[in-house]
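no rush on this but wanted to send it before i forget. theres a chain ive been looking at and ive put its sequence and its fold in token form underneath. please have a look and point out which stretches look like helix strand or loop to you. thanks a lot i owe you, the record is right below:
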Amino acid sequence: MFGTQPVTYYVGSVVHAIHGGLQQAALGNGVTESTVYNARLQPTPIQAGLGILLVTDYRSPLIPIDILG
């Protein structure tokens, strides 16, 4: 074919949780992204490989957060 380009894969395989949210994805760079859901089906935390961990906090901004404990 004329002008063909190599194929770039951004996601190799995907696993969905029972509610349909993304549970695990093997990315094209070799990193695996994993997501854990709480009882309200909010993603917490999301981890990509060994170095990236995204922790989310869904508490109300009206509730003070104790940063020491």
Observations:
- The radius of gyration is 18 Å.
